[in-house]
Amino acid sequence: MESRNAFRLRKQASKPVETRRSEKESGQITAEEEPLSPSARLFHEPNFNVYVIAIMGCKTRIYPDVVKANLGHTLLKHPRFSSLQVVDEKNKGEMKWVRTEVDLERHVIVPELDTSMESPDKFLEDYIYNLSKSTIDKSQPLWDLHLLNLRTSQSEAVGVFRIHHSLGDGTSLMSLLLACTRKTDDPLALPTIPIKKQEKNDHRGFWRTILRFWSVFQIFWNTMVDVFVFVATALFLKDTDNPLKGSPGAEFTPRRILYRTVSLDDLKLVKNAMNTTINDVALGITQAGLSRYINRIYGGNQKDDGAIEMDNLPKNIRLRSTLLINIRPSAGIQALADMMEKDAEAKWGHWIGYVLLPFTIAIRGDPLDYVRDAKATIDRKKRSLEAIFSFSIADLVLKLFGIKNSVSHNNVLLESGWTYGGNWFYGHPMAFLAPSSYGQPHALMINFQSYIDKMTIVLSVDEGTIPNPHQLCDDMVESLKLIKDAVLARGLA
């Protein structure tokens, strides 16, 4: 399954390429060289060697020759995807980007599969699990694409992109992949991303001044508190011991990546009924699912209708997630498409701030309380500059103490993304998109990704910490059902 010579065991992370030859030798292209940013170099540390995974389900069989032909005109135009990461001996061993010729035969992997296998979904899950045991050889650009003509319960074929996180942050990478797709109803048009409309403020005169002053004060106060907690967490304030807390060395373990697809309309129904956002509902589902899962471990029982019969949760559990926030205006899909097709410039790099998001772990009599708690938490975080300050603090720590002292450990990593409309992946209509990653020091990573009328919940799990991740997935899906049923039962929709 671990085909070709592109892989190495993750625990023995290979060193960056060292070269003393000119760029014209060994297939390299003369081009302006850039040093790797401190954030990019951070992702080469053995305890933070992170790879981004993007699972793309297609509605038809995938034709590798078509994909390879299109990659040459799109993705390979991006300098990060056609560059080696080379040690610069003239500059104290710093790493730099050096353009090179790309051999697609080494990057596009098409395994031979048994079409009569009993469980294609389990095979795909195991394939990605085994993929997470390996790294990409640093003698080539750090990405590959696995094309599996495998009929699963949700698609006719699957493409699995694997990209080293040093190539860019998650927002940039996902935008770049989407820039390689086109709408199904307009093969020449790029996919669309929803843009939040600015709310109009009808207040005028004296009351507008008062509201502005109050808003500025809230932002100032919340930021001060959040920065203090952020620094305290880095120094001494740890989460309560709980079943989701990974042991030291969890970043070296392979990851079980699995996903469930639910109806986006169900989330919208709850959102509209409770006057919240999709993110509020997603966080509410996460809190409810984690509460159900942890309560079961502590001996809580469950009724046939999904309700909890006994609350065995310890009191005052401190469980927090690291929520990644893009603090820089995204380059946008159109800008990235122009960069690949017309050699235009676009913003790129790692501009990610961190927000510590406290989870409410409790058994609620009213399922809607999970969403109310989530809304209160997110509204409070929106009135804070924590992400900007955490980015600045992390950058300062990198410069003062070096890369090895800059990796933090948390229990849960949480991300979300949204895409509207059906898309083509190089002529292949897509059925779903499920992003995740491995190599991070978190025992659990949760992604929410919408696509057309579906929401995909993706878990990346250290099985040494969470031995039954399918149960956790089921708990999150069941939590959405209970929240939706509570909305309908009260006639709120």
Account of the 3D structure:
There is one protein chain. The chain has 493 residues and is of the alpha+beta class. 33% of the residues lie in helices and 22% in strands. Strand 9 and strand 10 form a beta hairpin. The strands form four sheets. It has a seven-stranded mixed sheet with strand order 7-9-10-4-17-16-11. The chain has a six-stranded mixed sheet with strand order 12-19-18-15-13-14, with helices on both faces. The protein is globular and about 60 Å long. The longest helix is centred in the middle third of the chain and has 31 residues, at 205-235. Helix 8 packs across helix 10 (368-382) and helix 8 packs across helix 12 (469-489). It has helices spanning 38-42, 64-71, 104-107, 120-131, 170-179, 205-235, 264-274, 278-297, 333-342, 368-382, 386-401, 469-489, and strands at residues 7-9, 17-18, 34-35, 51-58, 83-88, 94-99, 108-109, 134-136, 143-148, 157-164, 181-183, 256-263, 319-326, 352-359, 412-417, 423-425, 428-438, 444-451, 454-461.
Write a concise keyword list for the protein shown above.
493 residues; 19 strands; seven-stranded mixed sheet; globular; alpha+beta; 33% helix; disordered N terminus; six-stranded mixed sheet; 22% strand
The structure class reads alpha+beta
Strand order of the largest sheet: 7-9-10-4-17-16-11
Number of helices, counting only DSSP H or I runs of 4 residues or more: 12
Number of strands: 19
**What is the strand content?**
15-25%
Q: In this structure, how is the largest beta sheet organized?
A: 7 strands, mixed
Mean pLDDT: 81
Oligomer: single chain
Terminal residue distance: 48 Å
How would the global form be characterised? globular
Radius of gyration: 23 Å
Instruction: State the helicity in percent bands.
Output: 25-40%
Low-pLDDT sequence parts:
1-31
